[in-house]
Write a structure and sequence with these properties.
The protein has 13 helices and 19 strands. With 532 residues, it is an alpha/beta fold. The longest helix is centred in the last third of the chain and has 24 residues. It is globular. Bound molecules: flavin-adenine dinucleotide. Flavin-adenine dinucleotide binds next to helix 1, helix 4, strand 7 and helix 10.
């Protein structure tokens, strides 16, 4: 088995990984590994934009207040202040790298700032309705042309390598990772004094999600197995309106459609939101998601619908060109038909516990972006704060890391060959597919938008059983990307269930019928890394 050596190992090629690589490359050799094609990331699908106080009339104080308000008492105020204040500098950096944010078309100079739920001001910088795609393309271009950065696509981290695992004396430390080239099947090791996890979220833990297939929670599972603390995993944000169609995977019907007057109705066309909130269909995301969930459960219906048929076809085509075209591809004419929607897992507010500089409880391991839990989002994320968090933290992480002395003797650490033992190629791929579906269905049914102790307990039993079975499968058969992702998905599912069971209150995105009120003192849910 070969071992590659670099100064910085960066895992992931979304906004967090790409920005981390670009900053670190000024100080050393970066190896960036990413498990599919480089552009495949949550970042690439971000529609709305990036929150930033940039024009007169808005203020850092207001952005801070909006973020704290959304976070329901669990945000760390100092973290919020730091990230909000650093936003303009990081936006300038993105622009210098070639991201062109939309400007006003009415003759007055300035950005065309969007407004989203929970923001008291227009402060969302966007590049049309494909902000993420534009950001991803610009950053990838810069990374691919940087002589200090080497990118390995189709390369998936299997497990982190720690000194504890190597039975070396002293405090535990991350010294690199085993990786799998999914095209060739080769497994090799990467030795690095610093490993930056930028692996994104875990939407795929749920049956319905608007996240792409890469979002299997790998970073959280890798870090936790290596002994790192994770926090607040119970806070999963569900987007209320993902298109429901057998052939449409993860297409979002933007909140702006409701902003233009679309009503939520049941499958028979009856509006129901007024029964849940006086703001009706324009209530905040978590309330709308809970209402849709309740209606679906009440009628045993697979979806609810959006009704915007009162608007003309010409208006809809002009205002929502992408959404109109996408719906039409699935045989839904927004001007004539109801749009079937389901809530879908969207964003994970919890993750590997980390500071703004990415520092985790495991020396040598940094976490940046959606994989990290920095204290910015608290119990609920304010829209368009996540791309901002990634770009600010990547910068802060690199600034701190390059000043840190590299412990002596790390470059002499011997990494043993990957042991396949008596494992053989699997002749039972059906086990992976079956368990994959079972985990996701179990999480959707029992650990979704509205929770109860009984459902959580049921989920815990099933997920534990599945974890044991998957662990056995992992030892018996040669590893494949599918097995590894399933193992990560199931570990993360268990972390979500355990965290949810610890929170005996309803706060932010965690809503349980058994404890509908809030505890007087807000607390994070911190789970220690796996022992042994
Ligand atoms: C549909 C949609 C719309 C959104 N809209 C917005 C918005 O408007 N504004 C906003 O702020 N946020 C938005 N978000 C959230 C935001 O896009 C994400 O939080 C953010 O892009 C996360 O960036 P990241 O770099 O941390 O992770 P990602 O962009 O998801 O990148 C993760 C990377 O890690 C790689 N990876 C994962 N596991 C491994 C492994 N084991 N080995 C190797 N590589 C691995 C992946 O392949 C990928 O390259 C949206 C999300 C979605 C899904």
């Amino acid at each position: 088995m070969r071992t590659e050596t670099c100064d910085y190992l960066v895992v992931g090629s979304g906004i967090a990984g790409l920005m981390s690589a670009l900053h670190l490359a000024a100080h050393g050799r970066v190896l960036l590994v990413t498990k599919k094609e480089s552009a495949e990331s949550n970042t690439n699908y971000a529609q709305g934009g990036i929150a930033c106080v940039i024009e007169a009339g808005d203020s850092f104080e207001q952005h801070v207040a909006d973020t704290l308000d959304a976070g329901a008492g669990l945000c760390e105020e100092a973290v919020v202040r730091r990230i909000v204040r650093d936003a303009p500098a990081r936006i300038a950096e993105l622009e210098a790298l070639g991201v062109a944010f939309s400007t006003r078309q009415n003759g007055t100079p300035g950005y065309d700032l969007g407004r989203e739920g929970g923001h008291s001001q227009r402060r969302i910088l966007h590049a049309g309705d494909i902000t993420g795609q534009r950001v991803e393309a610009a950053l990838l271009h810069a990374v691919q042309n940087h002589r200090n950065i080497r990118v390995l696509e189709q390369t998936l981290v299997i497990d982190l390598i720690t000194t504890r695992w190597l039975h070396r004396p002293g405090a535990n430390r991350c010294v690199g990772a085993y990786v799998l080239n999914r095209s060739s099947g080769e497994i090799f090791a990467v030795r690095a004094p610093a490993t930056v996890l930028a692996t994104g979220g875990c939407g795929k833990v749920y049956l319905y999600t608007c996240n792409p297939d890469i979002a299997t929670g790998d970073g959280v599972a890798l870090a936790w197995r290596a002994g790192t603390e994770v926090a607040n995993m119970e806070f999963i944000q569900f987007h209320p309106t993902c298109l429901y169609h057998p052939k449409a995977r993860r297409f979002l019907i933007s909140e702006a459609v409701r902003g233009e007057g679309a009503e939520l109705v049941d499958a028979a066309g009856r509006p129901f939101m007024q029964a849940y909130d006086p703001r009706g269909s324009l209530a905040p995301r978590d309330i709308v998601a809970r209402a849709i969930d309740a209606e679906m459960k009440r009628h045993a219906a697979p979806y609810c619908c959006l009704d915007i048929r009162h608007k003309s076809r010409a208006f809809l085509q002009k205002r929502f060109p992408n959404i109109y075209a996408a719906c039409l591809r699935y045989g839904i004419d927004m001007a004539r038909d109801l749009i079937p929607v389901v809530p879908a897992a969207h964003y994970c507010c919890g993750g590997v516990r980390a500071s703004v500089e990415g520092v985790t409880s495991l020396p040598g391991l940094l976490a940046v972006g959606e994989v990290a839990c920095t204290g910015l989002h608290g119990a609920n994320r304010l829209a368009s704060n996540s791309l901002l968090e990634a770009v600010v933290c990547a910068h802060a992480m690199a600034e701190r890391l390059v000043d840190q002395p590299v412990p002596a003797a790390l470059d002499r650490v011997q990494i043993p060959d990957w042991e396949s033992g008596t494992a053989v190629p699997s002749d039972e791929q059906v086990v992976v597919t079956h368990n994959w579906n079972e985990v996701r269905t179990c999480m959707w049914d029992y650990v979704g938008i509205v929770r109860t102790e009984k459902r959580l307990e049921r989920a815990r039993r099933r997920i534990r059983m599945l974890r044991r079975e998957i662990q056995q499968y992992y030892f018996d058969y040669l590893v494949t990307a599918d097995t590894l992702e399933l193992r990560n998905l199931t570990d993360v599912a268990e972390l979500i269930v355990r965290s949810a069971m610890r929170r005996r209150e309803s706060r932010g995105l965690h809503y349980t019928l058994d404890f509908p009120g809030k505890q007087p003192r807000p607390r994070d849910t911190v789970l220690p890394g796996k022992a042994g």
